[in-house]
Amino acid sequence: MKFHVMTLFPEMVEQGLHTSILGRAMDAGIISVNTVNIRDYSEDKHRHVDDYPYGGGAGMVMAAEPIAKCYDAIIGGSFSSGNALSGSEVPASGSDSATAKRRTRVIYMTPWGRVFDQNMAKELAMEEELIFLCGHYEGVDERVLTEIVTDYVSIGDYVLSGGELPAMVMIDAIARMVPGVLTNEESGVTESFMNGLLEYPQYTRPEVWRGQKVPDILLSGHHAKVAEWRMQRSIDRTVQYRPELMDDVTLDKKSAKYYRELCASRNKNE
Ligand code: SAM
Predict the structure, then answer these.
(1) Residue 37 beta carbon below 6 angstroms from any ligand 1 atom
(2) Which residue ranges form the domains of the chain, and what is each CATH number?
């Protein structure tokens, strides 16, 4: 899968992503991250990419033209930076920009977008490639957004200085869903949100740490009982920390009975 990131700070994205699991996936050619510096497409002699907002007000706004040119370069495969983070530096979608526009989703990172979650990560991981646009300053001229953006995505209800961290968060979560990125041992199948629940507590050696013992069931070697214990702890944790998630969870008969009993005992204790 190919990720293209339009940014004013390519080094931030490169350094942030080329480590650990994603770094290994890039080296293996399973994913690639191609950062493209929007500033390289400024026609201003000082390489400015921002200007004052029409109508006044604080801050600066990223101008439309450098972003549009940067996008065209990605679509046309002629991006200037050569910052691909994998072995292969592949153009986004060939040279037919009309076809490419239809095919390649362009995600603008913005606090007013739809809030990113695991389901969105799973859905986006089905794409062959994605283009991210990272804003800065007060944001981006609306006209270029209308022209190129297909998805407006936020990573939460707070304001960050730029879209780079949000894009990195999304790329990490999406890449983990791409077949081959996680090894069997790292499999994402049991992770939080994968079945709609939060993950159960995890333990490793030593068996007793500062007087706290690992739950006996995990040492029993009884796989069915361990699975049941983990499911129940997942339900406990979800009910405690994110009760609203329970509305969308489908539980098997046994787990549903456990959940009903848990709710009944919590209601009694309230
Ligand atoms: N003036 C903008 C507003 O009020 O919506 C905020 C601009 S913010 C300082 C600069 C850039 O950071 C945005 O253009 C966006 O790309 C990115 N950004 C900030 N917070 C974000 C969030 N929660 N999710 C996604 N992107 C965010």
Answers:
(1) no
(2) 2-175 (3.40.1280.10), 195-269 (1.10.1270.20)
